[in-house]
Amino acid sequence: MSVDPMAYEAQFFGFTPQTCMLRVYIAFQDYLFEMMLVVEGVILKKLDAIPGCQISPSQIRKCTEKFLLFMKDHFDKLFGRMEEVLLQLVLNIPKNVLLPEDKVHEQYPCSKEEFQALQEELQQLQQQCRAEAAAGEALRAELEEQKAVVGELEKILQCFNGLENICREHGTGNFKESFAFLTQNSKKLQDALKDIEEKSKKMEQRGQLL
Predict the structure, then answer these.
(1) Is the dihedral of CA 86, 89, 90, 92 positive or negative?
(2) For residues 5 and 11, what is the distance between their CA atoms, to the nearest angstrom?
(3) What's the CA gap between 154 and 161, in Å, rounded?
(4) Where are the domains of the chain?
(5) Which residues form a coiled coil (predicted)?
């Protein structure tokens, strides 16, 4: 079999010429084996019709196998010549023939160096696309975080607005003063709570002593 990959022929035919020749070889070989079995069967029938014949079926099988090897050897030699002719003259695309789908290469020729440069440029563009995609994902994640922060700030703003409204309802217009007033009252409440807790502890200790 030919070792030439014949890629251009495979592009045109849709299969490699070597694959075609291999299938033809297998088909001829199978037909040869089947033919020898038919011949062997005919010989056995003829021998059965001859009275007193001393030739056994095993001897016929040995002779058939020898004849099959002889035929296969000659067939391989003939097929080798046929394969060479078919691959060179029938299943071969001449070097000066250009397939229709490759006409664009004739109009816009490209050297190996130019093709290599295009491949390198393509790889760079692919890397840039991947980097931009990653940056886009990061920006989207940051935007989601900003939306969450804005939501929290809006809640805080609503809380301050509510406090300001409460202060206005109680006659205090300045929010800073109201906030300071609330802070002072909160501290007083905390001190009072501590005082109550301390008195409660003392009362519990007295109760235990009694």
Answers:
(1) positive
(2) 11
(3) 10
(4) 7-100
(5) 108-142, 179-206
**Got the DSSP string for 27-83?**
HHHHHHHHHHHHHHHHHHHHHHHSTT----HHHHHHHHHHHHHHHHHHHHHHHHHHH
Closest by CA to 46, choosing from 32, 58, 36, 60, is 60
Q: In sequence order, what are the residues at sequence separation of 6 or more whose Cβ sits closer than 8 angstroms to the Cβ of residue 137? A: none
> Which one-letter DSSP state was computed for residue 97?
-
- pLDDT confidence of residue 210: 54
Determine contact, residues 1/91, Cβ cutoff 8 Å.
no
CA angle 100, 104, 109 (to 5 degrees): 130
- Of 167 and 7, the one with more pLDDT: 7
Using the predicted structure, report yes or no on whether residue 21 has a pLDDT greater than 80: yes
